[in-house]
Amino acid sequence: MRSKKDPDRSRQAKGNFSRRGFIRGVGIGGGALGTGLLENAAEAAPATAASAGPGPVPITLNINGKPVNLTVEPRVTLLDALRNRLDLTGAKRVCDRGTCGACTVLMNGKSVYSCSVLAIDAQGKAIETIEGIAEPGKLHPVSAAFWNHDAQQCGYCTPGFVMAAKGFLAEHPNPNLEDVEHGLGGNLCRCGTYMGVRQAVLEAARTLKTQGGKNG
Amino acid sequence: MQAFEYSNPASLKEATALLAASWGEADVLAGGTDLISLMKDSLHTPKRVVNIKSIHELGGIVRTAAGLRIGATVTMDELARNAEVRAGYPALADAAAGIPSPQIRHMGTVGGDLCQRPRCWYYRQGFGLLAMKEGKSLVTGGENQYHAIFGGGPAYFVSASSLGPALIALEAKVRLLSAKGARVIPAIEFFVTPQDESTREIALRPDEILTEILVLAAATHSATYEVRQKEALDWPLAAASVAIKMKGPVVGSARIVLGHVAPTPWEATAAGEWLAGKNITVETAEAAGKAAVEGAQPLSHNTYKVTLAKTAVKRALLAAAKVRA
Ligand code: FES
Ligand code: FES
User: Fold this and answer.
1) A204: closest CA among A153, A154, A148?
2) pLDDT of residue A145
3) How many domains is chain A partitioned into structurally?
4) pLDDT(A29) > 50
5) Would you say B236 and B100 are in contact if contact means Cβ atoms under 8 Å apart?
6) What is the pLDDT of residue A10?
7) Residues 6 or more apart in contact with residue B162 via CB below 8 angstroms
8) Is residue B239 assigned to a domain?
9) A19 belongs to a structural domain
10) Domain-located, residue A37
């Protein structure tokens, strides 16, 4: 339900604007501050609060344990920064409206929809993506359990599910089936792999326990 | 999404100075779970976005002499887990925990829950709060299965707030702050049924920030019961929050507030009054449910919501009084 019923698609074009005009209008030079925020860059703000944009501003994100510098407009979401700027395409852009879970990453250990977080707002947080959860060539116990239980078909929802499951297990190391159902209530799978996913998460909980609870 | 200036004030004084006197200039950003979608759909096109998550005093749940002070940037996850909220104000804890997506609970805030815009698909597609076209409501003649069964128009969207009904049942207040000063209003006055497109569905003014919620010292039994089509990623079809003050073995006073049935949380005053002096039993809870939906005016596709609302009231009352059905 709550599907995006679209009574009149022609209305969607509303609110278009010239991106270039905005950047030109503000005139932020290269003198950005090291903090990633520009002091009153646009028209003078009536207060001293740090302001940035609307043009591109340098930011620093902590991704999979490493600081990454990039320059983005404040309107760029964390998801788009990951996928389009940093080549981390594991998190998927499906609904882009916080209603499917395909873009799930962990921020300070908690699952969030990266499509609904501004990249500039994610500074100072430990961001973990599917690319960073295991050594190259190895599978994280959660990923391995998904493999064992055939918990994907097209696989589009899978990275989001794995990250949501990882975040969930960090807080609920001993879940039962019902806990898993509720704990993954923020992710949808169009292929209907829920049964496999739930079994996978239960198995991952067992594996993580025998490995001394290392879910890192 | 239209480009905007991002401000990250560290104090309320700075934050309120960054807001403007009319809508469309600046938007307050907390969890972003609604605002970012609204901006992507060009429903909000602010020139400035004011992040309030760096303002320390907007966080935290603190017990005061009068009750509980819940900061605007407290997340739904924090609220649902807070021991004091769970023990003293189960209606609030239930409502926060009822949001099925952990990702939304992790980011979504208390202030954002109250200030989020309606989910009505006509509104989300750009037809405005009243969804009028050529003088006619698109809702009454259209796809209205998730719309209002109370209020009688001209607005037919339903308030999307999870906490609103519980806060009204608990007689909570909200504090709103602008550069000119603060005002504290009862939660019930925070929600407004717009009569035209220039009014918002909340009493917040464009230059104000919702800073905190004040809940009275717990003297009540309370609960929230939501009915959903599925247990994931969705808003309830109907919900009820109830708060009961006991007088010895019987109900002294009761407040029953329905959610997702009207443009505001909908208080069923008569049903609450009817319960006074009675025991909560399966029979009285059911009768109160029936009384609560009296006068409902369902639209062409949502008569089913009347039954759901009635059942939500009954189950919330039984949960609050800890009576097994
Ligand atoms: S893409 Fe973010 S929740 Fe769907
Ligand atoms: S496996 Fe296809 S969407 Fe989940």
Assistant:
1) A148
2) 97
3) 2
4) no
5) no
6) 36
7) B76, B95, B96, B98, B99, B113, B236, B239, B259
8) yes
9) no
10) no
Please judge whether A54 and B15 are an interchain contact, meaning their C-beta atoms are less than 8 angstroms apart: no
pLDDT in tens, A57-79: 999 999 999 999 999 999 999 99
Of the two residues A58 and A47, the one the predictor is more confident about is: A58
Spatial separation of the C-alpha atoms in residues B84 and B104, rounded to whole Å: 22
pLDDT digits (tens, 9 = 90+) for A101-141: 999 999 999 999 999 999 999 999 999 999 999 998 899 99
| Pair of tokens at residue A197 | 């996913």
CA distance B235 to B110: 16
Contacts of B14 in chain A (CB under 8 A): 47-49
- CA dist B128 and B199 (Å) reads 11
DSSP B116: P
Element (H, E) at B61: strand B61-63
- Does A93 sit in the ligand 1 pocket, CB within 6 Å? yes
Residue whose entry in the numeric block shows the structure tokens 């609060």: A49
d(CA B269, CA B199) in angstroms, rounded, equals: 25
Structure tokens at A146: 């998904």
**Candidates A15, A55, A115; nearest CB to B2:** A15
Of B5, B17, B33, the CB nearest to A42: B5
pLDDT of residue A47: 37
At residue B174, φ and ψ (nearest 5 deg) are: -120, 145
- The minimum-distance atom of ligand 2 relative to the CA of A152 is 1
- Cα separation values, B149 from B146, B193, B309, Å: 9, 14, 10
Q: Name the DSSP class of B216.
A: E
Report the pLDDT value the prediction gives residue A49, as an integer from 0 to 100: 57
Instruction: Tell me the two tokens of residue A212.
Output: 């001394």
A5: left (phi over 0), alpha (psi -120 to 50) or beta: beta
Helical packing angle, B304-320 and B90-97, nearest 10°: 130
Distance from CA of B133 to the nearest CA of A (A): 12
Which residues in chain B show pLDDT less than 70?
Answer: 325
| Total domains present in chain B | 1
**Helix, coil or strand: residue A132:** helix
Instruction: Please tell me the distance from the alpha carbon of residue B134 to that of residue B127, in angstroms, as a whole number.
Output: 11
Query: Ligand 2: distance of its center to the CA of A209 in Å?
Result: 27
Average pLDDT over residues A25-40: 34
| Strands, sheet with B221-227, edge to edge from the N-terminal-most edge strand | B221-227, B238-247, B250-259, B266-267
Report if residue A104 sits inside a domain: yes
Say how far apart CA A52 and CA B29 lie, in whole Å: 14
Of A112, A132, A152, the one marking the end of a domain is A132
What is the pLDDT at residue B234? 83
Residue-number span of the structural domain to which A159 is assigned: 141-210
Residue B154 DSSP label: S
Task: Please give the pLDDT value at position A41.
Answer: 37
Residues A157-211: tens digit of each pLDDT: 999 999 999 999 999 999 999 999 999 999 999 999 999 999 999 999 999 988 7
pLDDT of the residue at B230: 81
